Recover the amino acids of this structure.
């Protein structure tokens, strides 16, 4: 080879080596630049300050920002000489790849629904259905209208615990769910312990919250149907606390409403247990009733129960039979005075019906006014508001107890005299049943159909009165049917288990129940012996003058009083 050819080959070889070295130098070092776009363009080191780097600011140019591109490296291909995976491993890898391929990567996460608060749900239901709205005119005969104002949901004191207990039981009757029932009994036990601690303190014992808590625990008995309507576990303590609070409690609307509700509970206890020791705590209704017709109406039940117990005291308490309708035994002076007191009490009921109308019109504008006996059913088109209807039902209940006690225990009364009282019984029951649609909100005061959320508040107040009608010996078949329909609604529709059911032993096993059984037998015997007299009396007008109805001349013979 000539010298010229060898030089040319050497030159080409050196050129090839230089190209290879240059390519090798330009190989990607393995790291991407993360600086801003301007610093990368200027090929200077960027301090990567966000949102704009300081080097660009010093340079006097606005920073153009950073790139949002992501760079991915290719994984190195495995050597083909590597051993192939075993069939189970290969199958597992294939399943993972398939699941990854079909898995949606941009699915929105569905938030979990919040768990239901049993306490909040039960409280909302109880307050909306069993608590009366706060009356604007100060009418005191509502049901727990003060509760939302004194309930503190940030605390777990006596009132709050007692409220939760009755609210959860009400929710259980409405919605089911054993958790409501379990929590109700747990809170009841806790409330009893807190109540025991509260009554030990002189400062706390007479507080409004303590009285309200006791009333709520009594309401629980009505709702769950255990010891239906029987606040025997709380009556002595409630009587003591109400009496200790004295007349000062009547100075506020809350104190007055608490007193009314407590008095109703105590009177129910006195009737069921034939014990009138707790009917008038502190003689408040007797003293204040002189000035306030509403309080005087509440005192009628106290007076009625006292007269009833005096009538029964003239006979052997151990004897379950009623006294004979006629007797050869002369009437003793104290017995005659009690009988006279019964007729005077009936006259007081009649006078109150007349006086209450004017009082309602002057004090409670816009409310339906009470009417005379037997006229409640003919109120259309002007009816009653919820609270007035409940009040009339309670007052008529006291009248019914007095009438039935007189029929049962006053001897030597002429047949026509007994039938006159029976006519009053019929009118009293008609008034009670006629007021129920207004009390439950089915009919508005203007006589038009309506509905209210708080029908449970009225149901708590009147269900014992309806049970009284349903057990009355002189209620007609139509009246009994209506009363039982109402009780079924209070039980199934509203959740007042005390209205009906197998746990009504508190009323079925009382002296009242035994009296009604014997009065039914006595009434049947009179129909057999004097059918003409019965027909003549029943066809007579029911609007006869009250002066005739209340006269003691209904006795066959003048009272023979022995000294």
């Amino acid at each position: 080879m000539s010298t010229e050819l060898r030089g040319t080959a050497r030159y080409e070889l050196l050129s090839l080596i230089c190209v290879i070295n240059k390519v090798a130098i330009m190989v990607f070092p393995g790291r991407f630049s993360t600086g801003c776009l301007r610093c990368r363009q200027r090929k200077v080191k960027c301090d990567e300050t966000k949102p704009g780097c300081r080097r660009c600011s010093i340079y006097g140019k606005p920073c153009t920002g950073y790139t949002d591109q992501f760079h991915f490296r290719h994984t190195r291909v495995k050597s083909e000489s590597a051993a192939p995976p075993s069939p189970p491993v290969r199958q597992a890898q294939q399943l993972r790849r398939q699941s990854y391929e079909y898995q949606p990567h941009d699915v929105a996460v569905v938030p979990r629904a919040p768990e239901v608060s049993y306490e909040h749900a039960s409280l909302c239901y109880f307050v909306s259905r069993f608590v009366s709205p706060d009356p604007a005119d100060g009418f005191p005969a509502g049901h727990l209208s003060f509760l939302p104002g004194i309930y503190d949901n940030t605390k777990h004191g006596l009132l709050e615990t007692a409220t939760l207990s009755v609210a959860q039981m009400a929710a259980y009757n409405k919605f089911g769910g054993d958790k409501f029932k379990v929590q109700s009994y747990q809170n009841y036990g806790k409330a009893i312990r807190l109540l025991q601690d509260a009554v030990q303190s002189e400062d706390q014992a007479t507080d409004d919250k303590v009285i309200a808590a006791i009333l709520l625990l009594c309401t629980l008995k009505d709702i769950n149907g255990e010891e239906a309507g029987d606040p025997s576990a709380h009556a002595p303590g409630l009587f003591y606390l109400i009496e200790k609070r004295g007349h000062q409690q009547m100075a506020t609307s809350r104190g007055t409403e608490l007193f009314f509700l407590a008095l109703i509970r105590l009177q129910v206890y006195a009737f069921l247990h034939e014990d009138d020791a707790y009917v008038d705590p502190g003689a408040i209704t007797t003293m204040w009733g002189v000035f306030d017709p509403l309080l005087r109406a509440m005192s009628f039940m106290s007076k009625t129960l006292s007269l009833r117990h005096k009538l029964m005291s003239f006979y052997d308490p151990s004897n379950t039979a009623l006294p004979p309708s006629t007797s050869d035994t002369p009437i003793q002076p104290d017995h005659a005075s009690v009988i006279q007191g019964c007729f005077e009490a009936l006259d007081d009921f009649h006078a109150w019906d007349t006086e209450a109308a004017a009082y309602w019109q002057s004090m409670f504008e816009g409310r339906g006014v009470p009417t005379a006996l037997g006229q409640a059913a003919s109120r259309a088109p002007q009816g009653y508001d919820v609270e007035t209807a409940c009040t009339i039902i309670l007052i008529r209940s006291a009248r019914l107890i007095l009438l039935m006690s007189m029929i049962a225990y006053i001897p030597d009364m002429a047949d026509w005299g007994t039938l006159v009282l029976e006519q009053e019984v019929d009118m009293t029951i008609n008034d009670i049943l006629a007021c129920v649609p207004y009390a439950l909100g089915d009919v508005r005061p203007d006589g038009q159909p309506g509905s209210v959320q708080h029908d449970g508040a009225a149901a708590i107040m009147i269900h014992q009165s309806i049970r009284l009608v349903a057990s009355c010996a002189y209620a007609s078949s139509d009246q009994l049917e209506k009363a039982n329909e109402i009780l079924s609604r209070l039980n199934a529709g509203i959740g007042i288990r005390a209205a009906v059911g197998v746990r009504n032993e508190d009323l079925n096993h009382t002296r009242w129940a035994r009296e009604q059984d014997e009065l039914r037998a006595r009434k049947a015997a009179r129909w057999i012996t004097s059918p003409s007299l019965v027909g003549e009396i029943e066809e007579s007008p029911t609007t006869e003058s009250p002066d005739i109805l209340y006269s003691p001349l209904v006795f066959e013979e003048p009272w023979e009083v022995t000294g």
